[in-house]
Design brief:
The protein is mostly helical. 78% of the residues lie in helices and 0% in strands. It has 9 helices and no strands. Helix 3 packs across helix 9 and helix 4 runs antiparallel to helix 8. It is globular. It starts with a helix and ends in a 5-residue tail after the last helix.
């Protein structure tokens, strides 16, 4: 129990939380969430949050083992992940579409809200990449913090949209795009050395 608490590092939790917050980009997804609400009636914030939490924690626990089955190391995945994050940041900064969204399912709170909007490929890539730098407990707490934020945003989507306006949401996307770009460069430079040692 002592070693469990000694592994908690609030600085690492903050850094990991900011990475996941930038990747999930729940604020930037508000227009998409509003559209989903209009198309499917009502969304269930708690269901979407719990499914997203299960996907993220599950991937944190078994994601590395899945990689080992394919003979891929964490550093290799982190480098590949940094390239995906780089592409995602370009989408946010330049307003271009590099990734095509999959068709929605009947249960919009799970598909596509929980997956792939919240716990999508970028989020999973980030979780594996974060494992190369931070302890699992710190990443788990960062995931939980982000899921709480996701739940709050889903509950207050319309109010947030009215408060920020289209211009405010667009500015947030640009700002978090730049943060995500810097994170991608750091992940690449930190882990690419491991591939040649």
């Amino acid at each position: 129990m002592i070693s469990f608490f000694s592994a908690i590092n609030w600085s690492d939790i903050f850094k990991a939380s900011m990475v996941l917050f930038a990747v999930i980009d729940i604020i930037g997804s508000i227009p998409m969430i509003i559209k989903l609400k209009e198309n499917s009636g009502d969304l269930h914030p708690m269901r979407a949050a719990l499914v997203s939490l299960a996907i993220m924690i599950g991937f944190l626990i078994v994601g590395e083992n899945i990689l080992k089955l394919f003979g891929v190391g964490v550093s290799s995945f982190a480098v590949a992940g940094s390239l995906i994050l780089f592409a995602m940041s370009l989408e946010m900064i330049l307003g271009v579409r590099l990734f095509r969204d999959e068709a929605t399912g009947k249960v919009a709170s799970v598909v596509p809200l929980a997956f792939p909007i919240i716990a999508g490929a970028g989020t999973m890539t980030s979780i594996i990449s974060l494992r190369a730098e931070y302890h699992e407990i710190n990443i788990s707490i960062a995931i939980l913090i982000n899921i709480i934020l996701v739940y709050v945003v889903l509950r207050l989507t319309k109010k947030i949209e009215h408060l920020l306006g289209e211009g405010g949401i667009a500015i947030l996307k640009k700002v978090f795009g730049i943060i995500l770009l810097a994170i991608a460069v750091k992940l690449f430079s930190t882990n690419v050395k491991e591939l040649f040692t």
